[in-house]
Design goal:
Layout (H helix, E strand, L loop, with lengths): L14 E3 L21 E3 L19 E3 L20 E3 L9 H9 L5 E3 L24 E3 L6 H6 L9
Parallel strand pairs: 1-2, 2-3, 3-4, 4-5, 5-6
């Protein structure tokens, strides 16, 4: 577990790599006091959720691949200004997360979402892909999209 304010004395830190450290939980405000952090690597841990780890206004890239995340919707405030987010090879099952991410992350250009086994897409009535998104690259490799095609939901992701 990463506890609250663990790195708060490192105010000039630009890159933090905590990959492959068997981290199972991020405590509230775990990354508080890192106003200049631009790159955060949490690859290959055992994270199930992000929680309220603090706002990181300068964060440009977030690497969360190969964890155990099953939803990202509630935890999105961590990456509000990011242009690159990697959520590949987690346990995400609802494609609604793509809509939430693109609606809230106005600057996101690269979204890696491959290796998640999507089973459904439960988006709110009338919600669709935001017109003002900046996305240039969407990776959905190995995501078992067949259930999504069969349900005929979330298909507007592929209209652009």
């Amino acid at each position: 577990e990463i506890f609250a304010h663990t790195f708060s004395s490192l105010t000039e830190l630009l890159l933090l790599d905590l990959s492959y450290n068997h981290i199972g939980k991020l405590g509230n405000n775990a990354f508080e006091g890192l106003p200049n952090l631009r790159h955060l690597y949490l690859t290959g841990n055992s994270l199930r959720q992000l929680g309220s780890v603090a706002s990181l206004p300068s964060l440009n890239t977030l690497w969360l691949q190969d964890n155990r995340l099953n939803s990202i919707s509630a935890d999105i405030s961590l990456v509000m200004n990011s242009t690159v987010v990697d959520l590949s090879d987690n346990r995400l099952t609802n494609m609604e997360d793509v809509y939430v991410i693109l609606t809230q992350l106005k600057h996101l250009q690269f979204l890696f979402f491959g290796g998640n086994l999507f089973k459904w897409c439960t988006i709110n009535q009338g919600q669709g892909m935001p017109d003002n998104n900046s996305l240039k690259f969407l990776d959905l490799h190995g995501s078992s999209l067949q259930p999504i095609w069969e349900q005929r939901t979330c298909l507007d992701i592929f209209d652009r």
